[in-house]
Amino acid sequence: MTEAAEAPTGNTEDEGNEAPTKKPGAVYYLGRTLISGVAKTVFRPTITGRENVPKTGPVILASNHLSFIDSIVIPISAPRPVQFLAKSTYFTGTGFKGWVSRNFFTAIGAVGVERGAGQAAQDALDQGKRILDGGNAFALYPEGTRSLDGRLYRGRTGIAWLALTTGATVVPVGLIGTQEIQPVGTTMPRVRKVTVKFGEPIDVSHYGPATSGKARRQATDEIMAAIHALTGQELAGSYNEAPPSGTLHRIADKVFPRERI
């Protein structure tokens, strides 16, 4: 999820009517085996804390985000199948190129979703909920989008809404060095050392219900603190987004700051 939006706080009576997302199928397992074997041979990642990821049940892998390659590194490093959200256009292309894109992203556990603010952001949260309701592992970047300067940005509260709504365990993930494999603006990955750290599981249920903005904010801050402890990144102290344009917009954003997904 890459755009800011308010976490849901209204009527939730219709939640659960959508069928949970099924576990990944044969294409995923075959692709994961092939991609994982090649990636681990070439990049030889250092992986720690795999035992912290529950083997069954809904779990959110909450990670910092430095590069496009992060969405490949996490699934091949985790001890169980992992799904994550990706742009729906990766799955809708035509011809041979579209076939390759569709099968590649399916193979690494991606689930297509429209990206954006407002209803698109809510739809992304709902898709994440369906994945977790199916008892699956779901990878999510609380910062919303990748950090271009290497700093760790403030987390958006959609992750807490998902954890509090589904009862999923949260496992913080620290990625180190992935920005060197595929820097922003490059298309071909480079061979660089990467480290993946899975932190101790976090239960955020004691903060309160998902309808509480305070509970969502506190839970999100604990998750981000755990990620920071794993990566040691400099803290940005702000959300990872372009500053609002226009004087009135800037004033409104300060007076009525929105919660972020």
TrEMBL record:
Recorded hits in SMART domains, A to Z, give:
PlsC
The alphabetical list of record keywords is:
Acyltransferase, Transferase
Entry GO CC: plasma membrane
- Which stretches of sequence are listed as region Disordered? 1-22
Task: Give the source lineage, highest ranks first.
Answer: Bacteria, Bacillati, Actinomycetota, Actinomycetes, Micrococcales
Its name, as the record gives it, is Acyl-phosphate glycerol 3-phosphate acyltransferase
Q: Which GO biological process categories is it annotated with?
A: phosphatidic acid biosynthetic process
Q: Where is the Phospholipid/glycerol acyltransferase domain?
A: 59-178
